[in-house]
Amino acid sequence: MLQVAEVLPGARRAVRRAVSLECAVISDWWDEPVPHLVTNLTPHGLWIETPFPLEIGDEMIVSFTPPRWRRDREIVTCGAVRRVDLRRREAGGGMGIEFLDLGEGERSELTATLRGLPPPLPKKLSRRRPRREHVWVEMLLTWEEDLGDRVNRFEVSDTIGVFRDEALRFEPLGELLTGGVLAA
Question: How many domains does the chain have?
């Protein structure tokens, strides 16, 4: 049967890291490279603060020097606008850029460079609701917990299969947020 399931918000490929660096953007909309402020950076993309974001899907060339890199070395890559936030116009607005052709070597170097930098602090307490999706389950089991003053009720899907211990592989879902940089 089809059942509605909640998907937790904030699932990402990589942890965003708080930075403050300049980035030059070359686009079809501008005659010359335009400097912008980058406030979030991951190995997969960056967030540019701008009151005039481009349209979703627009492609560009971005050029920047990541933190802790030599000043004479920079990343130049193609990117595409994947997210535009106009609600934050009072804070400057912005756009999320995904790297399209960043090489694996540069991506792994960028990952190592960003390790240990803190994630950005939230602007305000997020009250986003979980996204809802339809999933197929064979049967729902209902479990109730009576606490006297209230009753907690949980619905879980039935077991689909039995796994042997060696068939399971445990992996972290993300990086450790509070880990520091290893001493050389």
Answer: 2
